[in-house]
Amino acid sequence: MTASRPPLCLTQGDPSGVGPDITLTLYSRSRDDGEPFLVLADPGLLRRRAERLGLPVEVVEAEPEQAAEVFPSALPVLALKARVAGEPGQPDPADAPATIESIARAVELVHAGRACAVVTNPIAKSVLYRAGFAHPGHTEYLGELARKLYGRAVRPVMLLWSRELAVVPATIHVPLAQVPALLTTEDLVEIGEIVAEAFRRDFGIARPRLVFAGLNPHAGEDGAIGREDIEIIAPAVARLAARGHDVRGPLPADTMFHAAARETYDVAICAYHDQALIPIKTLAFDSGVNVTLGLPFIRTSPDHGTAFAIAGTGAARDTSLAEATALAARMARARA
Ligand SMILES: NC(=O)C1=CN([C@@H]2O[C@H](COP(=O)(O)OP(=O)(O)OC[C@H]3O[C@@H](n4cnc5c(N)ncnc54)[C@H](O)[C@@H]3O)[C@@H](O)[C@H]2O)C=CC1
Ligand SMILES: NCC(=O)COP(=O)(O)O
């Protein structure tokens, strides 16, 4: 950790999910030598959950500037305006305003230079939708917040990163039936540029090796099983190659994720959510990190969701959150 760098800012996530559990667990085991963080949450929620889990964690209200000093002895929490019920496993749309407030204020803190990165805890999209939340997920909401606060166009791109595999879904939280119409050559080129720049800047890879997955079985089998691979994805690959990128594709998605194939690239850009997330969650569920590229600030998150069934039981592993905080700190160092 660097004393002069502002702290990481963790959001509350859905208060009925495992976010409080993994935050408290990570704090318990990293307070002595870990990267200091501040949590934007209802302090009462964290106190109740710590007691339930039997974790001897003192929760102290603090400003971001006090976080590094407080961290070794107590969990620093910047209190939300809203209080939450946060009953483990019983999500309540009435708690949604606090969940949303936490995300929005975390972005305000990084914008003001009071936090070095946003690390989000999991939200349940359907619970927020029921409360009127108009964004598909964090990724899109963070893009909207960034546009407003920073006053410029932002194209948020979802990256799921692990030591085993890194993947980017070109389309994210959309119905599968809409995917072919949403894939455009221009958008894929823009995503490829954003991904290549991020791997250079944040991951220290001078010339990242990009591959694109095909949309159709066998990448369309020369057009016999769908033409999107030829008409949309291949031209994007050609355009990126012409700009000097190390890029291949479209590759048949069924044969590009085995061990030897993964050695040949740094990041796979996939056509849709599950094409990208199934391989990484199979290989690295406990250590995968969700990163939003293309934002004017750093955002990471554990790759898993709210896991309501195990919230408050002590069964939630904090390993993915630990990787998310470590990666956010690494990115902050790379950008310093
Ligand atoms: N970044 C985010 O905010 C994300 C949010 N979600 C949301 O989470 C909700 C639930 O989604 P699911 O598909 O059920 O996925 P999930 O990741 O919450 O759970 C899938 C399985 O993994 C287990 N699991 C998850 N995290 C774990 C942990 N830390 N330790 C041990 N076991 C763990 C769960 O108990 C369950 O068996 C959805 O509403 C979805 O929108 C899902 C993914 C990411
Ligand atoms: N499956 C990934 C996921 O749902 C996370 O999305 P986001 O909330 O980070 O946009």
UniProtKB/TrEMBL annotation:
EC annotation from Swiss-Prot or TrEMBL: 1.1.1.262
Keyword Transmembrane helix: no
Annotated a divalent metal cation binding sites: 173, 218, 273
GO molecular function, one term: 4-hydroxythreonine-4-phosphate dehydrogenase activity
The protein's annotated pathway: Cofactor biosynthesis; pyridoxine 5'-phosphate biosynthesis; pyridoxine 5'-phosphate from D-erythrose 4-phosphate: step 4/5
Major enzyme class: oxidoreductase
Free-text cofactor note: Binds 1 divalent metal cation per subunit. Can use ions such as Zn(2+), Mg(2+) or Co(2+).
Reaction(s) the record says it catalyses: 4-(phosphooxy)-L-threonine + NAD(+) = 3-amino-2-oxopropyl phosphate + CO2 + NADH
Family matches, as HAMAP family: PdxA (MF_00536)
Record's miscellaneous remark: The active site is located at the dimer interface.
Function: Catalyzes the NAD(P)-dependent oxidation of 4-(phosphooxy)-L-threonine (HTP) into 2-amino-3-oxo-4-(phosphooxy)butyric acid which spontaneously decarboxylates to form 3-amino-2-oxopropyl phosphate (AHAP).
Name used for this protein in its record: 4-hydroxythreonine-4-phosphate dehydrogenase
Annotated source species: Candidatus Rhodoblastus alkanivorans
Top-level taxonomy: Bacteria, Pseudomonadati, Pseudomonadota, Alphaproteobacteria, Hyphomicrobiales
